[in-house]
Amino acid sequence: MDSLTCPSCGASLPVETRFVKVVICEYCGQSSLLKNRSLDPTGEKVNLASVDSILKIGTTGTLRGEPFKVLGMLRYSYEDGFWDEWFLELQNGKKRWLQEDEGEFTSFGKESITSPIPPYKDINVGSSIQVNDLNVFITEKNRATISGGLGRLMFQISPGDKVEYVDGNASGKLLAIEFTPEEINLSIGESISLDEIELDES
Amino acid sequence: MKAEPLNCPNCGASIELHLSNTKTIGCHCGAVFDRRTKEMLEHLNSRKFQARSFLELGMIGNIFGQDYQIIGRIHYVNRISEFDREDQEYYNSNWPYDSWILLSQDGSYAYISEDEEAFYFEEPITPEIPGFPELRKFTPGFYAGHGKVLAKETSSSKIAFFEGEFSWQPRIGQKSESTEYTFGGLCFEATKQLDEDGQAKEIEFFQSRKISELALAQGFKHEETVQRIFKEQQKSKEFKHFGNIAMVTALALAIFGFVIKGISPGSHVEVYSSEVSALDRDGKLFGPLNLENEGRVHQVELKLSSMPSNHSLIAGVELLDSDKKVINEIGSKFWIGSGYDGDRHISDKTSFRLSKAGSYTFRLFAEDKKPMNRDMYKVQGTTLSVKILENTMPAYPYFITAFWLLLYGATIRFFKVTNPLYILLGGAGVMFLIIKFVVLLANEEFE
Predict the structure, then answer these.
(1) How far is B425 from chain A (nearest CA, A)?
(2) Contact B130/A139, CB-based, under 8 Å?
(3) Rounded to an integer, what distance in angstroms lies between the CA atom of residue B267 and that of residue B293?
(4) Quick check: B368 pLDDT over 70?
(5) Which architecture does CATH list for B267-390?
(6) What mean pLDDT is predicted for residues B382-400?
(7) DSSP state, B430?
């Protein structure tokens, strides 16, 4: 495990996985790009308000029995508040996002899009659309802003960036489609109850 | 659940916060302000929308095995369209209710919905078969997966008031649409949040179950309410016995009425009859008949034999004493109707107590009324007869009293009525009937 130094505050920031591209200092909020085993402070410095959560950067435990470690966190804000997405590394090296919104957790994995997705403006809450081979009932449509992040992430974030998103339900599977000017991301997941998350004693 | 103190910028009241992501705070004084900036957003009329039950912000309790704290209340005014399956019609009504926001120790939310009739405990769910069941005429539901979703009612709500802390910003007048539906024996609610343009921005699903006020009061350890409910239950139990007694008495009265009817048909005295075609409005005299038992109840029954459909007839009998004075009479319109609303009235009777023994005569009369344009038309083959019976006892006062007593008792018993005014007024009504009939029976002043 490498340990790097925050170029802004000098804090020691361990980096355990080779997929990490961005490190956000937990102490000063400085976002840095990981280049040639050193941190380049290219991103903005954003201090996120701390919230009560069972998770924090570095937390380990099991998700439905599968061991995980929290690497990073992204916060999105929208007109009605905000939600956090925890970036988890599973024991087998796979990555998951654990969304936490008002005490409810949803585990998401990124999926490839294999069929055309209607434009954001044509999607309506309460209607159904076809995504890949799934018939998706749209439950939410909104715009959000990336407020900031913490820890290690696989991509660079720009706080203040806007995203359009729709959420849906396909026979109990939860879908999140994120529209940015550059790409459309599809994530498919499941609702997770609290007793399915077990944390190691720290 | 940790609490962080904060003072209301309007009234200065100390407010405990329990969420780390609180965005908006509604103080009990009606002030709504932003948690971070303390900027006043609006001022609500808090007096107008007082909570109706014992529930209040900050209460900690255990509901269905989970610890919760009440952190907010939203008062909605909604318009309900309820579909009546029997009538196949919608019925609209306005229905205010409170939604109490509960925060669990692990940060999840649940809600208590309280209207003037009941409390419901609601938890957010992710349905396996999502949809927004809407009531449509004649198809109040839809088939989904393995069963039929039955929509019970749909409503559109507006936020009228709120207090407490919220991770979002409630706005007065903010609209939502909800449908309550049942699926697989469980109760669900789908709520569509609307934006300012009336467009749906989110649909949330909840599973709801009814919870009694007692269970809630016990859960939140509100001793005063628990004691009040226990007292009410005790009172209700006592009144239940009272209702039972009333119903048993009603049953006894009805049985007595049947017994009276069975054992007291009256002894036959005489029968006179005549072809209607042989009668006119002046009538025909029959008798004389000697009635000797003074003080006995006598009954006179007037009856027509069958008559053509859609005919009517004015017919009657007068009982004359030896001085040709009428001492009792029956005069009535008799008819037989046919078709959808067809019914018939071909007999009538009267009772009287014989005050003086003597010789009596009976005048039978009849007047055709149908067909309308034939004044001289006479119903053919119809007989008007009068039967005189002695020693009869009428049963109908018992049946009428039994009916009202049964209704009174059943209302107390099954609707758990404990309102003393109802008990008193209802009881007084039944007593009035009983006294009236006792007096009538004593004086034989009935017909």
Answers:
(1) 53
(2) yes
(3) 12
(4) no
(5) Sandwich (2.60)
(6) 78
(7) H
